[in-house]
Write a structure and sequence with these properties.
Length: about 150
């Protein structure tokens, strides 16, 4: 099935969302699955923690999209759309505190579980915009860190 977000005009945003949805992204949840060299070992999922916010949480798609403190300022715009188009009498910052709420947010932001077509488009566009900007920031932080190590 052809997903609507693939029609978005911003190539970089589409690419980021596709990689997040497909599990081919730079997040530690994916990178720790395989050995980079013969000396490396495969990391257990609990070891693939976020090195960006140093919270101790696994850096998976949900952490990246909803929880990582490093992107909170970028997330504000996305959450305004979520509050307006999806939650109405709840707030995304509160809903994300519960696992069920996080799952609801994740589904809506990646394009599932929103019956209202215009709301789904607004949520998808907000998520695409956030993902592009947040991944750009993440990659800059990682590159800066690696530059300091060499």
């Amino acid at each position: 099935m052809f997903e609507d977000y693939l029609k978005h005009p911003d190539l970089r945003a589409r690419e980021t969302m596709t990689r997040l949805r497909g599990g081919t992204n730079e997040l530690r949840i994916e990178k720790g699955r395989h050995r980079a060299t013969n000396r490396d070992r495969i990391l257990h999922e609990s070891e693939r923690v976020c090195l960006i916010c140093v919270s101790g949480e696994v850096e998976d798609e949900c952490h990246f999209l909803i929880d990582c403190a490093e992107y909170e300022d970028l997330r504000e715009e996305m959450f305004r759309v979520v509050d307006e188009k999806m939650l109405r009498d709840e707030r995304a910052k509160e809903v994300r505190k519960e696992e069920e709420g996080k799952q609801r947010l994740m589904n809506a932001l990646i394009g599932h579980g929103v019956a209202d077509k215009s709301a789904a488009v607004a949520l998808r566009n907000a998520a695409l915009h956030f993902c592009k900007r947040a991944m750009k920031r993440r990659n800059a932080i990682v590159m800066n860190y690696l530059d300091q190590k060499t």
